[in-house]
Each structure stands twice: as C-alpha cells, then as structure tokens.
C-alpha cells in the first residue's frame, strides 16, 4: 500500500464514524491518488502539475522513468520540471534536473557526486506523498524534497538535516533519455542563479527541440558556484558550452552542468529552488518564474495549485451511495489523470507567431480520440475549445493536423488521421467559441484528400488506392508518399471512420456533396470483410465466421490468423515497425468490431444481434480482448447496438475494479496521457461516448448519483440510480425517466449536459426490455440509409435469444 493509500484508509476509518459516510459530497480532490499506475508500465506522472500545465515536477528514478517517478526503481537521480504522462514510447523531457547533496564529503567539491549515474540515491520507502499539485519524497541522504508548480515554473523545498551542512545543488544539462545535442549552462556567482539550454529529441517523433531553464535559490547564503564536466567540478569558469562529441552518446553522454553551494541554511534547514522553463529563451524562463512565483512562497504556491484543482474537480459531484472509498479513489484519480495533458504551451511556441492557443503533448491522438477529449469536453469545455483551436493552428502552420505530437515535434502516426474524430466530436458538442471551423474543415479534408510526402508522421498513406480501390491493399503501390507499408486492415477501418466523421462536419457546414462522398467512403471497412473466414484457437473452430482479412491490389485475399496479435497469439507482433503486420496493436478479431459509424450494418454483417452479441461476449470472455490498449474501450459498449444495453453494464463491472483499481499497478496498460483514466471515469459515470458522434451510451453510474455542471451554460445534469446498491447487484436498467418523462433510448446526446436536467434510472437484478428496441438504439449509418432501421429480422432475432 502506498503512503497515500494508507492516508485514505485512515480517512475512511474516520469517515465511517460520522453519520454521513454514505454521502460523499466533499471535493473529489481528497480522493485523488496520483500513484495509481506508477508500477508495471502504467508510466503515470505522479508529480506536481496544474491542469494541462507545462511545468510538471517530480523525482526522477533511474529506470521505467517515462513518467519521471515509478516504483520500478528505488533510486532517485534528480528532480526535473517537465514530463509527459503514461507514454508508451520512450521517456520524454525530464530536462535539466536539480540534485541536492547535504555537503561534499571532506568539504571537497570533487567529493560531491555529479553524473547522474553516480549521484543516484535510494529514497526512503514510504516517504513518498502525492496529491494534485504536490509531490514529496525523502532521500536516503537525509534530504526531504517537496515540490509544487505554477504554469511554467517548478518550485522545490529541500529540507536538509544533519551536521556539517553546506548544501550543494547542481543542475544538469541532460534529459530522461540522454538525448542532448548542444547545451550550454552558466551560473551567476552573486545570486547563485543557474541558466542554461539544450537541444533534445522527442520521445516518439522526429526532429529536435530547444529548451531553456532558469534556476534561482532562496533560504541560505551562497558559498560558491561553478560548473562540472564528468565527475570533476571547479569554481572557474562560470559557464560551459558542449556540442556532441560523437563518442559519448546515449547513457554515456557527457555529464555537464553547474552548481551552487550554500552555507548552512537557517534553523528550518530549508532551501527553496525555483525553476522556470521556456521553449523561447533563458530570459523568458527567468521572467516566467519571476512573474509566477515572485517571492519563493512554497505554501502559497501550493495553496494556489490546490485551489485550481479543486475548482476543476468540483464541476462533478457524486452521492456515493455507500460505495467504498477505494471505488471513489479509482474514480477521482481517473478524472485527475484525464486533466494532465495535452499541455498548454501558449506563449512558448518558437515555431510560429500566432494569437491562437498552443497546446502540445497530444500523445497520441490515436489514444486520446477515444475518450480523453470527450472527458475534457464534458468537464472543461473551455480547455477543449483551446485545444481544438490549437489543433487547427497546427494545421495552419504545419500543413497537417497531428496524430501525435510532443515537445514541439511531429510524432508517429499509428493508424488513421484521428484528429478528424476529435474535431468532429467537438463540432457536434458545441465547441465553438473562437473556433475557425472553416479552416478546421479544410484541415480534415486535407487529411482525406492530400497524401503528404511523409505519412509516417501526419495525414494518411495509400490515398490513391483509398480513392480508387476503396481499401488499403496489403501490397499497396504508393509512389506518392513514404511511410510504413503495414497495417492495411487497421488503416482501412480507421480511414473509413475518419471519413465518417468528416461527413458529419460536412453535413453540419452544409457541404452536401462532401457529406455524400465521405459517407460513401466511410463504408469502405466492408471491403476488407471476408465473409467465409473462420477462426481457430488452439486448433478448435471458435464457431464464428466472417472476419476482416488482408486484401491485395488485384482483389484477391491474403491471410492473417484472426487471433494473431491478440493476447492469445503473438500478442506483441503488431507494433509500429517495418516487420509489422496488417493490424496495429490488435487482432482481426478486434478490428472486425471497429465500424463505430456503421454499427447497424456491422451487426447485420456479423449475423444479426443475437450472433453479434455471442461473438462480442466470446471476444471478452476468451481473453482475445486486451482492455489495456485503447481500442478495447468501445468494445465494452457495443452491446448497445445489439439491443442488449444491460450487457454493456455487466461488462463495465467486469473490468472495473478488477483491472482499474487503487493499487500502484492499478491500470492495465500505459495510461497514454490519461486514456485509461478517461475510460474508467466515463464508464463509472455511466456515459461512455461513441467518439466522434453525439452519442453517450447509457449505463448505470457506479454511484447512487452523479452531477456534472456544464462550463458553457452553467447548467447541471444529474444521473440518479433508483434501487442503487453498493454491492452492484442491481446493475440493469429497468426503466428510465428524463426530466420526469419516460425515456427508452439507450443513449443520450450532449445537449443533456448543455441544458441540464435529470435522468432517473430504475435498476434491477436482471436485464429488462428497456432500451432494446430498434428505435431505442444509437444512430448508425445504415439506419439512416435504411438497411436495418425497422428491419423485422432484428426483432425476431432478438426475441428468439
Ligand atoms: C444521503 O443523501 C440522501 C439524499 O441525497 C439522503 O436521503 C440520505 O439521508 C443521506 N444519507 C446520509 C447517511 O446522510
Ligand atoms: C540507505 O542507504 C544505505 C547505504 O547504501 C543502505 O544500507 C540503507 O538500506 C538505505 N536505506 C534506505 C531506507 O533505503
Ligand atoms: C516498501 O514498503 C512496502 C510496504 O511496507 C513493501 O511492501 C515493499 O516491499 C517495500 N519496498 C522496498 C523496496 O523495500
Ligand atoms: C495557467 O494556465 C491556464 C490555462 O492553461 C490559465 O487559465 C491560468 O489563468 C494560468 N494561471 C495563471 C496564474 O496564469
Ligand atoms: C550545435 O552547435 C553548432 C555550433 O557549435 C552548430 O553548428 C550546430 O548547428 C548546433 N546544432 C544544433 C542541433 O543546434
Ligand atoms: C544557448 O545558450 C548559449 C549561451 O547563451 C547561446 O549561445 C545559444 O545560442 C543558446 N542556444 C539556443 C538554442 O538558444
Ligand atoms: C563567488 O562568490 C563567493 C561567495 O560570495 C566568493 O567567495 C568568491 O570569491 C566569488 N568568486 C568570484 C570569482 O567572484
Ligand atoms: C519522415 O519520417 C521519418 C520517420 O518515420 C523520419 O525519419 C524522416 O526524417 C522524415 N523525413 C522528413 C523529410 O521529415
Ligand atoms: C494477386 O496478388 C497476390 C499478391 O501479389 C498474389 O499472390 C496472387 O497470386 C495474385 N492473384 C491473382 C489471381 O493474380
Ligand atoms: C509467433 O510467435 C511464435 C512463438 O513466439 C514465433 O515462433 C513466430 O515466429 C511468431 N510469428 C510471427 C509471424 O511473428
Ligand atoms: C488491479 O489492476 C491491475 C491492473 O489491471 C490488475 O493486474 C490487478 O489484478 C488488480 N488488482 C486487484 C486486486 O483487482
Ligand atoms: C454553446 O456554448 C456557448 C459558449 O461557448 C454558450 O453560450 C451556448 O449557450 C452553448 N449552446 C448551447 C446550445 O448550449
């Protein structure tokens, strides 16, 4: 149990004694545990940040440090000021770490330890503490380190104890992945201020970025200053520049930095270090810090950070209805993780001049289109609006929307051009203020029409085949651009859905011909469906026929075992590399279920609702589905399209809390900038979205009552469970009322949240007929086109099961 967990169990013991333990109306803030997902590959950032803030301070450990800190290592090598959260790629950022030492043994500068590899110090087990805006840890060299942040500045309080104190704090020109090219550092002998810069690589993309910092200290008199190179330090010179030497690379990169040594601090033993960061210049790094935290006031800065987080979280309130503190912790922590990235770098973008907001760390949209941006739209539409404006501005200046972006660089595209989905989702959900939708529309059309020279980092490949053959051939002939010629199946279904989303925007903007055209193209997933394909597992027929399969240019079929790249067969063979296969990070089993805009046709294609439901259930039960990768999220709710909304609810409870819990290993995969968090929290609120559509699937919230206040209209929408029980026996909706009137649709649209109101769900122990009729199902392409709307086969099929 983490320290935080311990704290919560004490808190819950206290609460249990009070009479209102049943009704948590206290701020969700107290339930957030930032340590969830900090072991076994969650890569969650556990440190101090503001919502979507650029400064993210934490202790960096020596391995599995994608999020800076993790419990996979017990050695801390520095405290750095910027991070990404939950990444599946390499470690991002972590530039210019500080490292404090109580003194240099024998009072000899050279007896302090300078390189990362030598100075690493174990932390005191159990000393770690984290809550939104705050992180603390004690090192096994008697130093306690606490940190908090403002938007562009990290603030550290180092407390020293023991004898012969003459603390030395160094700042190192490195980053977590040792990617520094050129670098430069200087220390001011009077003030102890250290400034510097460096050129670094992004962790899952191309190019380089320059970053600058400015560190100031308060709390003790300056004794001396200097620089270090390798494990040698001196008081002269006061600055040093490095260029790559071609020999010392990777983990052997030359350690270079500066240091400031102090006389013993006053009786409290504290030295405050304030580090401003900027992508523009060291001057701006210094002025950011001076403006945001003029007086080195740690407690005041922390209080401001806590206040911002409480306000962010307070748009939701729950009546827990007797649900355990653990479940509430899962929920609030998940919401919190959904508000760490993308990061607001407005005013910090050296690449172009613009009055638009600039956000970065879209890491990656392939992950975040599925529920992160929907969570942000719901809870913080103002931030989502700024993000959409920044995406459109990236298109304006880079020529394409990103599919992944970090540290001012283009990141790798994993499948489709999925920013199209984010834009459509926002377009449909009243994300309008200051958004230039005409340019937004050009951006998505560019994805759909113009193949870029390098489609490994933006746009789509194979567009000529897409337009002429209506699928991505496995052996595509594409002389128009370069990119990895793999993933023909998953790219086909993602491009199809991207086109569906473009059609929605076209419709809204009145581009009727485009609407028709992209609607037509959105049906292209059907062209990869091989209707006689069977699937064997361990030599036995699974009994389901018809799967997506590879298709060649000449129209003949290839073969990829439908289970290949599922957890049951060569799970890790479909990553982004030249040896990749025809699906990405998943199997044909999985991608055969991916037609989010055309579910009516898909259900029909797979044999009608009853067979569809059996197949979907088999997919979940057999172990073919991995919920730790984002494509799994929607799979929990597809039962809604087969008239079985109760099974979506059952499946949600199957995964939460068994796979999403309060332990430090409590998320099933990389959090990917909050993706796992957004899945858990939206699922627990009972309103998981079909991303890119104005559709939320209704399932009973995991609490007696959930209310969400909309930031655009100030209205509150409440979902109430009647017959709620905290043991989750009554998880099936029997009937529903929206604002007092019977409501039979198994889905909601966003105007419920804009207008406010009450949705009352009456629960029972068994599935009911609520939300099962064809007219109650979420909309789907074919229901407008007519192939299943009102189709009698459906009713018969459902009645027969
Ligand atoms: C919890 O709140 C409900 C109404 O919201 C109220 O009826 C009930 O008495 C409260 N329970 C406790 C233990 O305070
Ligand atoms: C602190 O370091 C010492 C020496 O390396 C080691 O023996 C001790 O176990 C460490 N203590 C903790 C709490 O890690
Ligand atoms: C840290 O403490 C926890 C709980 O007391 C224990 O389970 C764990 O093994 C300890 N870790 C180390 C590295 O000593
Ligand atoms: C921090 O940035 C957010 C936007 O991301 C902004 O709303 C807020 O006002 C900023 N805080 C300060 C103190 O400037
Ligand atoms: C590094 O500095 C050298 C000059 O010292 C310059 O020629 C080179 O372009 C710089 N490289 C980068 C990546 O900034
Ligand atoms: C870094 O700082 C050095 C020294 O001030 C300066 O010469 C260099 O141009 C800076 N590099 C960047 C990328 O700003
Ligand atoms: C740097 O500052 C220290 C402390 O004030 C002083 O002892 C030392 O002489 C100064 N060094 C230089 C080069 O000015
Ligand atoms: C194209 O992308 C690849 C990575 O897939 C990168 O190595 C290469 O530098 C890029 N080329 C250009 C011209 O941007
Ligand atoms: C179609 O193309 C595939 C892949 O190149 C090849 O194996 C197959 O023989 C071709 N089929 C026909 C009928 O030409
Ligand atoms: C699948 O995994 C097996 C066992 O690890 C390995 O021998 C085989 O080469 C893999 N196949 C592919 C196509 O990656
Ligand atoms: C918590 O979640 C993790 C990750 O999904 C899982 O491996 C573990 O079994 C879960 N723990 C419990 C007690 O359910
Ligand atoms: C849409 O958002 C704006 C603020 O951006 C708000 O004024 C308006 O009322 C919202 N529209 C609806 C239909 O709620």
From TrEMBL:
<dbReference type="GO" id="GO:0006516">
    <property type="term" value="P:glycoprotein catabolic process"/>
</dbReference>
<dbReference type="GO" id="GO:0005829">
    <property type="term" value="C:cytosol"/>
</dbReference>
<dbReference type="Pfam" id="PF17678">
    <property type="entry name" value="Glyco_hydro_92N"/>
</dbReference>
<dbReference type="GO" id="GO:0030246">
    <property type="term" value="F:carbohydrate binding"/>
</dbReference>
<protein>
    <submittedName>
        <fullName>Alpha-1,2-mannosidase</fullName>
    </submittedName>
</protein>
<dbReference type="InterPro" id="IPR008928">
    <property type="entry name" value="6-hairpin_glycosidase_sf"/>
</dbReference>
<dbReference type="GO" id="GO:0000224">
    <property type="term" value="F:peptide-N4-(N-acetyl-beta-glucosaminyl)asparagine amidase activity"/>
</dbReference>
<dbReference type="InterPro" id="IPR041371">
    <property type="entry name" value="GH92_N"/>
</dbReference>
<dbReference type="InterPro" id="IPR014718">
    <property type="entry name" value="GH-type_carb-bd"/>
</dbReference>
<feature type="domain" description="Glycosyl hydrolase family 92">
    <location>
        <begin position="284"/>
        <end position="765"/>
    </location>
</feature>
<dbReference type="InterPro" id="IPR005887">
    <property type="entry name" value="GH92_a_mannosidase_put"/>
</dbReference>
<dbReference type="GO" id="GO:0005975">
    <property type="term" value="P:carbohydrate metabolic process"/>
</dbReference>
<dbReference type="InterPro" id="IPR050883">
    <property type="entry name" value="PNGase"/>
</dbReference>
<keyword id="KW-0732">Signal</keyword>
<feature type="signal peptide">
    <location>
        <begin position="1"/>
        <end position="21"/>
    </location>
</feature>
<dbReference type="Pfam" id="PF07971">
    <property type="entry name" value="Glyco_hydro_92"/>
</dbReference>
<dbReference type="InterPro" id="IPR012939">
    <property type="entry name" value="Glyco_hydro_92"/>
</dbReference>
<feature type="domain" description="Glycosyl hydrolase family 92 N-terminal">
    <location>
        <begin position="31"/>
        <end position="278"/>
    </location>
</feature>
<dbReference type="GO" id="GO:0005634">
    <property type="term" value="C:nucleus"/>
</dbReference>
């Amino acid at each position: 149990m983490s320290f935080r967990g311990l704290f919560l169990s004490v808190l819950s013991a206290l609460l249990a004694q009070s009479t209102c333990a049943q009704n948590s109306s206290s701020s969700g803030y107290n339930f957030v545990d930032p340590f969830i997902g900090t072991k076994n590959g969650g890569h969650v950032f556990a440190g101090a940040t503001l919502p979507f803030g650029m400064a993210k301070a934490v202790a960096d450990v020596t391995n599995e440090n994608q999020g800076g800190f993790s419990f996979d290592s017990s050695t801390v090598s520095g405290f750095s000021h910027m991070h990404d959260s939950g990444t599946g790629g390499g470690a991002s950022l972590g530039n210019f770490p500080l490292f404090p030492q109580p003194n240099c043994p024998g009072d000899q500068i050279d007896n302090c330890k300078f390189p990362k590899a030598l100075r690493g110090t174990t932390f005191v087990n159990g000393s770690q503490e984290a809550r939104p805006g705050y992180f603390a840890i004690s090192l096994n060299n008697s130093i306690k380190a606490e940190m908090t942040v403002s938007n562009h500045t990290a603030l550290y309080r180092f407390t020293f104890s023991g004898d012969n104190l003459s603390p030395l704090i160094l700042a190192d020109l490195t980053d977590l992945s040792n990617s520094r090219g050129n670098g430069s550092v200087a220390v001011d002998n009077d003030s102890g201020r250290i400034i510097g810069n460096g050129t670094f690589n992004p962790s899952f993309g191309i190019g380089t970025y320059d970053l600058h910092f400015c560190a100031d200290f308060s709390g003790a008199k300056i004794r001396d200053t200097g620089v270090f190179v390798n494990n040698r330090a001196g008081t002269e010179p006061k600055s040093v520049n490095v260029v790559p030497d071609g020999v010392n690379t990777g983990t052997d990169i030359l350690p270079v930095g500066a240091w400031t040594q102090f006389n013993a601090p006053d009786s409290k033993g504290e030295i405050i270090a304030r580090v401003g960061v900027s992508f523009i210049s060291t001057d701006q790094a210094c002025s950011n810090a001076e403006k945001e935290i003029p007086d080195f006031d740690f407690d005041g800065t922390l209080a401001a950070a806590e206040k911002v987080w409480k306000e962010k979280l307070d748009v939701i309130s729950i009546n827990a209805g007797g649900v355990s503190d653990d479940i509430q912790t899962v929920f609030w922590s998940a919401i919190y993780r959904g508000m760490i990235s993308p990061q607001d770098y407005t005013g910090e973008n050296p690449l172009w001049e613009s009055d638009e907001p600039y956000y970065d760390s879209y890491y990656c949209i392939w992950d975040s289109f599925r529920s992160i941006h929907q969570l942000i739209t719901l809870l913080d539409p103002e931030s989502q609006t700024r993000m959409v404006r920044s995406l459109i501005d990236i298109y304006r200046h880079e020529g394409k929307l990103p599919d992944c972006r970090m540290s001012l660089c283009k990141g790798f595209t994993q499948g489709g051009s999925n920013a199209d989905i984010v834009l459509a989702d926002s377009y449909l959900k009243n994300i309008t203020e200051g958004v230039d939708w005409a340019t937004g529309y050009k951006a998505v059309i560019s994805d759909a029409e113009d193949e870029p020279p390098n489609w490994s980092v933006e746009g789509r490949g194979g567009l000529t085949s897409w337009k002429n053959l209506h699928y991505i051939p496995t052996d595509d002939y594409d002389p128009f651009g370069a990119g990895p010629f793999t993933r023909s199946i998953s790219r086909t279904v993602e491009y199809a859905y991207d086109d569906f989303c473009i059609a929605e925007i076209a419709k809204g903007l009145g581009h009727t011909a485009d609407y028709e055209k992209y609607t037509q193209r959105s049906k292209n997933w059907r062209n990869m469906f091989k209707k006689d394909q069977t699937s064997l597992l361990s030599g036995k027929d699974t009994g389901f026929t018809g799967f997506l399969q590879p298709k060649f240019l000449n129209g003949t079929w290839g073969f990829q075992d439908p289970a290949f790249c599922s957890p049951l067969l060569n799970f890790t063979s479909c990553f982004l590399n030249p040896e990749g296969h025809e699906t990405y990070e998943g199997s044909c089993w999985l991608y055969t279920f991916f037609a989010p805009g055309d579910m009516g046709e898909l259900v029909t294609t797979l044999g009608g609702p009853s067979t569809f439901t059996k197949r979907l259930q088999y997919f979940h039960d057999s172990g073919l589905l991995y919920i730790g990768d984002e494509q799994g999220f929607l799979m929990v709710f597809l039962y809604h399209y087969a008239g079985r909304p109760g099974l979506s609810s059952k499946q949600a409870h199957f995964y939460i809390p068994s796979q999403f819990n309060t332990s430090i290993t409590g998320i099933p995969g990389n959090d990917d900038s909050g993706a796992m968090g957004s899945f858990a929290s939206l699922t627990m609120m009972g309103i998981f979205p079909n991303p890119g559509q104005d559709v939320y699937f209704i399932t009973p919230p995991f609490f007696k009552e959930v209310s969400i206040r909309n930031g655009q209209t100030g209205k509150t929408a409440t979902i109430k469970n009647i017959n709620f029980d905290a043991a989750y026996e009554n998880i099936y909706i029997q009937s529903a009322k929206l604002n007092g009137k019977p409501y039979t649709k198994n889905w909601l649209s966003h105007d419920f949240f804009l207008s406010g109101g009450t949705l009352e769900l009456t629960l029972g122990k068994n599935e009911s007929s609520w939300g099962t009729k064809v007219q109650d199902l979420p909309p789907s392409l074919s229901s407008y086109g007519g192939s299943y709307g009102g189709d009698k086969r459906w009713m018969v099929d459902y009645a027969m099961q």
